[in-house]
Design a protein that fits this description.
One of its GO terms (biological process) is molybdate ion transport. By secondary structure, this protein is of the alpha/beta class. It has 2 domains: 2-107 and 284-342, D-Maltodextrin-Binding Protein, domain 2; 110-279, D-Maltodextrin-Binding Protein, domain 2 (3-Layer(aba) Sandwich). Helices cover 35% and strands 24% of the residues. It has 13 helices and 16 strands. It has helices at residues 2-25, 40-54, 65-73, 89-93, 121-126, 131-135, 151-166, 174-177, 216-222, 233-238, 258-261, 296-307, 309-317; strands spanning 30-36, 57-63, 81-84, 101-107, 110-114, 142-145, 183-186, 192-197, 208-211, 228-232, 242-245, 264-270, 276-279, 284-289, 322-330, 341-342. Helix 2 (40-54) links the parallel strand 1 (30-36) and strand 2. Helix 2 packs antiparallel against helix 13 (309-317). The longest helix is centred in the N-terminal third of the chain and has 24 residues, at 2-25. 45% of the residues are buried. The model is unreliable at 1-28 (pLDDT under 50).
Length: 347
């Protein structure tokens, strides 16, 4: 009798385990998305719609893009989808070991956000070309995200470099060299290289604030503890903040300026085996389903919703308009091919 009961318990446990596996890959499981902080709000809206349609919870875990990738490559954590604020990070760090395809799908631009309580905001509105002079003032607190963890951070550093070229004013680089241990190198080919040590330091007494991801600065700004911050335009729109649109030669939002953008290279994680040179380029977001995603088919179905009309509308309302047609690289699943323009393998 006891043996029969034990066997019955084993069979029941096996059945429950099998059911759990099936649910994990189907409508009852949880999709896990590691994403850039600036993508959190639109992805959460798409996740809500996906749950309404399919009954599946989608866990959106936001961080800096580089940090999101390192959760997989360095920490060995499991996820279904990776979405980043610079699509070039996917071929650089995930292909081919962790992913075999990826899609570049949405755009943005860099802006300088502020509030009605920000020092000299009225001067900024009257004379927007003086933005870098205002940031240089000793009583102004300003910030950007950590370039070693977040693309918005290395883009902010790159934008300052571009500003020095655009305005023909090398003193603008003092925003970096006077406040941090970032090094400036002028290369023989005319490229400006900005080297960010892995142990980035903000100098004692500096008014610069650095946080792991760009959206971390919003709370400080809204609390009046920060006057200005480099953010994506989408973040400003989503949080109803005032913002200054930088010249298109600086804001990384205009593909026509690609050649000028490439004159600045930001070298992140300098001094480590993960040191990477990132040439400035127009801002384009990227997404992929990991090859070993626990719920691979479900993740692809989520991307069908995201890349379709509903997702396009959500992202456009969030200030992150889609490319005319998303660009796909590598062995893209058949289910997604009608939604993208197939390209060669990049990177």
């Amino acid at each position: 009798m006891m043996l029969a009961a034990a066997l019955a318990a084993i069979v029941l446990a096996a059945a429950v385990a099998l059911l759990s596996l099936r649910m994990g890959a189907g409508s009852g499981g949880e999709l896990v998305v590691f994403t850039a902080g600036s993508l959190r709000i639109p992805l959460e809206k798409v996740a809500e719609e996906y749950k309404r349609l399919h009954g599946t919870d989608v866990i959106i875990e936001a961080s800096g893009s580089v940090e999101a990738i390192r959760k997989v490559t360095d920490l060995g954590r499991k996820a279904d989808i990776i979405a980043v604020a610079d699509y070039r990070l996917i071929p650089r760090f995930l292909v081919p070991r962790y992913a075999s395809w990826y899609i570049a799908f949405a755009s943005n631009e860099l802006v300088l956000v502020y509030t009605n309580h920000s020092k000299y905001h009225e001067l900024l509105e009257k004379h927007p070309e003086e933005w870098y002079e205002i940031l240089s003032r000793s009583d102004v607190k300003w910030g950007f995200s950590d370039p070693n963890k977040d693309p918005c951070g290395y883009r902010a550093v790159g934008a300052i470099g571009l500003a020095s070229l655009y305005y023909h004013n090398a003193s603008i680089l003092g925003l970096l060299t006077n406040n941090t241990n970032i090094e400036v190198r002028r290369m023989e080919n005319g490229t400006l290289e900005l080297v960010v040590p892995a142990d980035l330091e903000v100098r004692s007494g500096s008014n610069l604030v650095v946080r792991p991801k760009s959206v971390d600065l919003i709370a400080l700004l809204e609390a009046g503890e920060l006057d200005y911050a480099f953010e994506y335009r989408s973040v400003a729109v989503q949080h109803h903040l005032h913002y200054l649109r930088l010249p298109r030669a600086i804001n990384l939002g205009d593909p026509r300026e690609s050649s000028f953008y490439s004159r600045v290279v930001v070298r992140i994680l300098s001094g480590t085996d993960k040191e990477t040179a990132v040439a400035m380029a127009p801002i384009v977001y990227g997404i992929t389903v990991l090859d070993d995603a626990p719920h691979h088919e479900e993740a692809v179905r989520f991307l069908r919703l995201l890349l379709g009309p509903y997702g396009r509308k959500v992202f456009e309302e969030a200030g992150q308009p889609f490319l005319e047609k998303p660009l796909a690289y590598g062995r893209v699943p058949e289910e997604l091919r009608s939604l993208v323009s197939l390209q060669g393998q990049e990177g």
